[in-house]
C-alpha cells in the first residue's frame, strides 16, 4: 500500500498544481484581499495608529501574511469538496493507490499556492516601502514559521473539505481565521485594548506568531515568542491532522 | 487463488444499514466470468450500495463478497487491483483535458508509457479530436465515454458501471451500450446497475431485480419472461416508437465508430 505513496502523491500533486495553473484567479483572490487591507491600513488608518515603529507597513506585514494564509486555505477546502462531490474522489479510492496520497496532494498544493500568494504580498509590501535588514537565517526562520502555520491551517481546512454538505459550508470556516489577526497585536499594540479583549489578544496564537515574525524582520531578539508561536503551530497541526485523518477514515470505510 | 471456473463476483448474505434505514437485507448473487450482469432496480433499491461495497468504498454490516477471487473485506488492495469503477456521476477531472485525464489514471495505475495508452484510448473512443480540450467542454456523451475509457486503463478484469446511461441522450446511450458489449466480448466481467428495463434487456446475460434490499429474481431474460403467464397472441398495429423516429432522423450524421477490438499493448 505504502510502496507507491511518494509516486502517487507526486502524480496527484501534479494534477492539483495544474488546476491552480489553469485557474490562477485562486492565487490572485488569495493575494488581493490582504493587499487591499495593506493599502487601506497603511494609507488610510496607518497615519493615525501609534505603534512605536517608524514604518507602519513594517509593523503590520506579519499580520497581513497570516491573513493571506488564512484566506488561501479556504481553497483547499473548496478543491477537496469539489473532488468529493464530482465522484473523482471515489474513483481514486477504488484504485490501487496509496490511500492517503489524495489528501497529501491537496495539502502540498496548499503549501505551494500559499507560498506564491505570500511572495506576491511581500513583493507588494516592498513596493509600499517595507524594508527589513533581516539576514538569510532570519528570512528562513520566517519562512519556516509561515510554512508550519500554513500546514496547520491546511489540515484544519481538510476537515470541512471532507465533511461539508455545501460549497459555502466548505469555505465558511475560514472567516473566523481571517478575523483572528484583528484581535491580536497584528495591527495595533495590545496595550490600549480593554481588559478581557487584551487578555484574549495577548494569549491567542496569532499574537505570538506575529510578534516572532516582527522581531525576526526587525532583527530584535525573538525571546520566548518564537517558542510559543512554534508551540501553537505544532499543537494546532497535530490536533487538526488527527481530526482530519479521523474524518477521512470515516469517509473511506 | 482465482480458478478459471470460479465466478468473477460472489455475493452472499450482504447486509448494510445507514443508521436505522436498512438498505440491503441479505443480497446473494454470482456473476460468471466474462458475462454482463445487470442489477435492475428503482431509485433507492440499494444498487449503488452493492456497487460501493464491491468496489471497497463501503464496508458491509454482514455477509461476504468476493471479486476476482479476493474478499472485499479482507483483501481490499487486491480487489482494487482487479476492478474499475465508473460511478453514477462521470468522474472526470473537468479542469484537465481528456488526454490528461487518461494519463493521470495510467500514472496512478503505475503503467508504462501513459501517453501512448491515452492516445490509444482516445482513438478507440472517438475522442482524438477532443483530446486536448478541457473535459468541462465535453457533451454528456463524450464525458461518459471518457469516464469509461478511464475505467479501462490497465485492463481490469472486472468493471462496475453504476447507472452508466442515466442522463444521456439516446445516441450516447447506444454508444455506451456498444462499448459495454465490446468489453464483454473481450472477456471483461461487467456488473452494471440500471433503472432502465430496456438497458438490462439489451445488454445483460443475466438480470437480477433488486427490490427493498433483496434480490427478487435472478436469471436470463428468457427465464424472467417465463415467470409470467405465457404470451397470448394479440394483433396490434406496429407503430414506430418515438425513439425509432428520433434515431432515424438524427443518426444519419452521427454514425458511431467505436472500435471495440482490443488494442495491442
TrEMBL record, chain A:
Residue ranges of the TM segments: 27-49, 61-82, 103-130, 136-158, 170-188, 226-244
Keywords: Antibiotic resistance, Cell membrane, Membrane, Transmembrane, Transmembrane helix, Transport
Main subcellular location: membrane
UniProt-recorded Gene Ontology molecular function terms: ABC-type transporter activity
One of the protein's GO biological processes: response to antibiotic
Subcellular localization, as worded in the UniProt entry: Cell membrane; Membrane
Domain ABC transmembrane type-2: 25-251
InterPro entries: ABC2_TM, ABC2_TM_bact-type, ABC_2_transport, Nod_factor_ABC_transporter
Annotated Gene Ontology cellular component terms: ATP-binding cassette (ABC) transporter complex
Superkingdom of origin organism: Bacteria
Keyword Lipid biosynthesis found: no
A Pfam family per the record: ABC2_membrane
Topological category with respect to the lipid bilayer: Multi-pass membrane protein
Family that this chain belongs to: Belongs to the ABC-2 integral membrane protein family.
Protein name: Transport permease protein
UniProtKB/TrEMBL annotation, chain B:
Residue ranges annotated for the ABC transporter domain, each copy included: 9-237
Keywords: Antibiotic resistance, ATP-binding, Nucleotide-binding, Transport
Pfam families the record matches: ABC_tran
GO biological process assignments: response to antibiotic
GO cellular component term, pick one: plasma membrane
GO molecular function: ATP binding; ATP hydrolysis activity
Membrane topology: Peripheral membrane protein
Localization, UniProt: Cell membrane
Record carries keyword ATP-binding: yes
Primary location group: membrane
PANTHER family linked to this entry: ABC TRANSPORTER ATP-BINDING PROTEIN (PTHR42711), ABC TRANSPORTER ATP-BINDING PROTEIN NATA (PTHR42711:SF5)
Family statement: Belongs to the ABC transporter superfamily.
Name of this chain's protein: ABC-2 type transport system ATP-binding protein
Organism of derivation: Nonomuraea dietziae
Organism lineage: Bacteria, Bacillati, Actinomycetota, Actinomycetes, Streptosporangiales
Amino acid at each position: 500500500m505504502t510502496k507507491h505513496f511518494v509516486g502517487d502523491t507526486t502524480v496527484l500533486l501534479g494534477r492539483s498544481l495544474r488546476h491552480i495553473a489553469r485557474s490562477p484567479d485562486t492565487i490572485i483572490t488569495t493575494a488581493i484581499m490582504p493587499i487591499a487591507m495593506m493599502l487601506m491600513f497603511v494609507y488610510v488608518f496607518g497615519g493615525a495608529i501609534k505603534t512605536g515603529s517608524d514604518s507602519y507597513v513594517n509593523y503590520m506585514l506579519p499580520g497581513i501574511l497570516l491573513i493571506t494564509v488564512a484566506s488561501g486555505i479556504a481553497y483547499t477546502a473548496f478543491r477537496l469538496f469539489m473532488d468529493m462531490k464530482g465522484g473523482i474522489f471515489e474513483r481514486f479510492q477504488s484504485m490501487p493507490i496509496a490511500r492517503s496520497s489524495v489528501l497529501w496532494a491537496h495539502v502540498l498544493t496548499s503549501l505551494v499556492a500559499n507560498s506564491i500568494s505570500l511572495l506576491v504580498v511581500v513583493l507588494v509590501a516592498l513596493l509600499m516601502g517595507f524594508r527589513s535588514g533581516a539576514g538569510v537565517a532570519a528570512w528562513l526562520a520566517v519562512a519556516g514559521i509561515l510554512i508550519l502555520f500554513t500546514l496547520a491551517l491546511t489540515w484544519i481546512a481538510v476537515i470541512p473539505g471532507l465533511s461539508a454538505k455545501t460549497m459555502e459550508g466548505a469555505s465558511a470556516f475560514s472567516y473566523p481565521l481571517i478575523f483572528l489577526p484583528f484581535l491580536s497585536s497584528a495591527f495595533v499594540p495590545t496595550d490600549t485594548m480593554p481588559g478581557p479583549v487584551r487578555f484574549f489578544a495577548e494569549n491567542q496564537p496569532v499574537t505570538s506568531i506575529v510578534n516572532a515574525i516582527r522581531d525576526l524582520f526587525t532583527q530584535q531578539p525573538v525571546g520566548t515568542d518564537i517558542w510559543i508561536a512554534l508551540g501553537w503551530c505544532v499543537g494546532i497541526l497535530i490536533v487538526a491532522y488527527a481530526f482530519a485523518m479521523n474524518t477521512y477514515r470515516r469517509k473511506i470505510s | 487463488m482465482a480458478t478459471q471456473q470460479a465466478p468473477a463476483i460472489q455475493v452472499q448474505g450482504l447486509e448494510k444499514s445507514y443508521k436505522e434505514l436498512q438498505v440491503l437485507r441479505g443480497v446473494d448473487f454470482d456473476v460468471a466470468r466474462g458475462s454482463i450482469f445487470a442489477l435492475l432496480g428503482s431509485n433507492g433499491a440499494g444498487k449503488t450500495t452493492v456497487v460501493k461495497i464491491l468496489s471497497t468504498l463501503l464496508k458491509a454490516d454482514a455477509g461476504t463478497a468476493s471479486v476476482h477471487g479476493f474478499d472485499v473485506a479482507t483483501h481490499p488492495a487486491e480487489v482494487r487491483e482487479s476492478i474499475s469503477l465508473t460511478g453514477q456521476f462521470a468522474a472526470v477531472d473537468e479542469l484537465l483535458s481528456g488526454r490528461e485525464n487518461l494519463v493521470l489514471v495510467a500514472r496512478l495505475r503505475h503503467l508504462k508509457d501513459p501517453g501512448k495508452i491515452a492516445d490509444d484510448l482516445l482513438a478507440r473512443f472517438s475522442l482524438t479530436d477532443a483530446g486536448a480540450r478541457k473535459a468541462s467542454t465535453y457533451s454528456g456523451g463524450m464525458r461518459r465515454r471518457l469516464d469509461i475509457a478511464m475505467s479501462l486503463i490497465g485492463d481490469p478484469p472486472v468493471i462496475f458501471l453504476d447507472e452508466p446511461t442515466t442522463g444521456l441522450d439516446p445516441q450516447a446511450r447506444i454508444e455506451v451500450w456498444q462499448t459495454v458489449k465490446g468489453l464483454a466480448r473481450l472477456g471483461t466481467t461487467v456488473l452494471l446497475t440500471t433503472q432502465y428495463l430496456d438497458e438490462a434487456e439489451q445488454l445483460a446475460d443475466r438480470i437480477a431485480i433488486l427490490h427493498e434490499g433483496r434480490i427478487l429474481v435472478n436469471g436470463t431474460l428468457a427465464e424472467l419472461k417465463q415467470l409470467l403467464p405465457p404470451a397470448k397472441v394479440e394483433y396490434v398495429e406496429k407503430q414506430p416508437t418515438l425513439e425509432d423516429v428520433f434515431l432515424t432522423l438524427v443518426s444519419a450524421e452521427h454514425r458511431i465508430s467505436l472500435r471495440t477490438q482490443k488494442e495491442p499493448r
